[in-house]
Amino acid sequence: MTVSITDVARAAGVSASTVSRALRGRPGVSDEVRAQITAVATQLGYTASRSASSLASGRTFTIGVVVPYVGRWFFGTVLDAAEHVFSAAGYDVLLYNLGSPETRKRFFTRLPLRKRVDAVLSLLIPDEEESAALRSLGVPLASTVGGARPGFSVVGIDDRAGAEHAVRHLVNLGHRRIGMISGSSGEQHWTTPVARRQAYLDVLSDAGIAHDPALEADGDYTVEGGERAMTELLAATRPPTAVFAQSDEMAMGALRALRRHRLRVPDDVSVVGFDDHELSDVLGLTTVAQPVAGQGAEAARLLLRQLDEPDGERAGHVQMPIRLVLRETTAPPSPRGPQ
Amino acid sequence: MTVSITDVARAAGVSASTVSRALRGRPGVSDEVRAQITAVATQLGYTASRSASSLASGRTFTIGVVVPYVGRWFFGTVLDAAEHVFSAAGYDVLLYNLGSPETRKRFFTRLPLRKRVDAVLSLLIPDEEESAALRSLGVPLASTVGGARPGFSVVGIDDRAGAEHAVRHLVNLGHRRIGMISGSSGEQHWTTPVARRQAYLDVLSDAGIAHDPALEADGDYTVEGGERAMTELLAATRPPTAVFAQSDEMAMGALRALRRHRLRVPDDVSVVGFDDHELSDVLGLTTVAQPVAGQGAEAARLLLRQLDEPDGERAGHVQMPIRLVLRETTAPPSPRGPQ
DNA sequence: CTGTTAGCGCGTTCAC
DNA sequence: GTGAACGCGCTAACAG
């Protein structure tokens, strides 16, 4: 049925170990024998069983990747880039999509990764307990979200600086009533919204603008949430003339809400997002760009490096560059204000 | 170091085989012994090695999923839904992202899936040779794209009917010069663009509208491609008053091109897309909606069913429903035409 | 340079 | 109901 190493060995007139050595490019095999074995193997369509070889060697040549929502642009893009790096290095990717709390819980208690992967890349922020579970796997760990964590190599951006760019841009345009759509819900140990909010508060304070809690709303990191949040902000006694959305998807929701309220962007209200989503350009959205694919690729490279040199440093923190991308959703406030 | 089945056996005072039976819920173990073993196992944090168990049993409890671009909304959404179905059934997902021709070629020649998966879900259209390679794995196969193929269960939509809806909508609005942005490049054995184009031609013909080759352009299934294609169409001697884009992403590119040309949508030009991308609503894009996540989930279910009853029918073809979603990018042609 | 001998950790007969 | 023996397909250590 399925051809095994002994089939190849028999056909080539050598022992199984020689076949193993030959096919994996290990030394100790004469060139002619190796060539002959290679020929026989391809002719027979032989591929070593990963189960058997990892059982024997302890190495799986597989990387576990943990994601909250593969369907979302950000995570899909990070995953795409990381997968390319892994597969180019000969590693397979075992994907775990942990959107719901139940699947997430089950994953971390049963830990199906145990004995199955050589390393783990997490695109979600594990809490203390979950981090400990991952560390217990005894393999290199990396993450593309959140702050530095013991045992993890983390690739990220300076959330604070990014948000400062965005809000300062609005201040410089002359806005004084600046709202924010945050994305705090969901993850508990998610430092990103906190850092971006702090930056918002700081820039306002620096500009001598009093903070108005009525100008903050939660957008849940989704388009719909952003729309709801914007609608909320517009219901304030004195609505904002500009809004900083902590993600482009929420900013897009805000744009929709504004259109439904017959408000013009940027004439009546300015909007700035965060991410530089692939469609932000289409919408003309001013935003803070971050290298999303770049972060996935870099995290993958960090893991591969740790796999190559197990004695190297186990963790690190890489900051990727960000930049403000000016497009068409921001402008000075209208002299007569919104409405 | 890592706890094995014999560790559990010793700690529970039984043999390894009893532990194996107990933990997998097989009959032949007294309830009390089973309970005790379960307790010991969880206390020790034992998880059976997948490598060892699949080597012994032949089952891997892993599904291979082959995707062209995980980062694209369509594929990410299909994958997300499929993964949920698989993981709920206790299967892991091995992901292969085959965007570039080289990785694709390498994948199909080396076939790293061999002996590693119990089934394969393909989100790309394999050509004859690639199909044969997948069939040689000897496991159930499914696909969410393209037409019926021997050996595969296919879940899809009626591309022809969908495109007819879209184009007929434009005709009914009174348009006579209707352009099309197709997405033919890339995949060779990709029947989708062909079917959608045929529908376009048929509807025009039915309406007594002569086909003008200058009104067709290739958009490569991307936003940028759509923008280029629209720009091309606008350069025609007599540009279209309406455009059918074979995907929402190309339609979005078209919208951008139109905005750059200072043309109003739908006043000057109407646009209809295909897919109902998550952001189409934000853009107010009229489009043909298809159940993207639904197709992924359904294909996954088909595979699981084949895994459960190996003697059942090996292949099938499921058609999912489509519907035209009317939004704000289509309207009757302006009396004075575009420009 | 090559073949032989042992396991890797589990599932699966068979006995008991 | 339970345990002992064997083998899944491969790699690693040891001979030669």
UniProtKB/TrEMBL annotation, chains A, B:
Keyword terms of this UniProt record: DNA-binding, Transcription, Transcription regulation
Residue ranges annotated for the HTH lacI-type domain, each copy included: 3-57
InterPro entries cross-referenced by the UniProt entry: HTH_LacI, LacI/GalR-like_sensor, Lambda_DNA-bd_dom_sf, Peripla_BP_I
Protein name per its UniProtKB record: LacI family transcriptional regulator
GO terms of molecular function: DNA-binding transcription factor activity; transcription cis-regulatory region binding
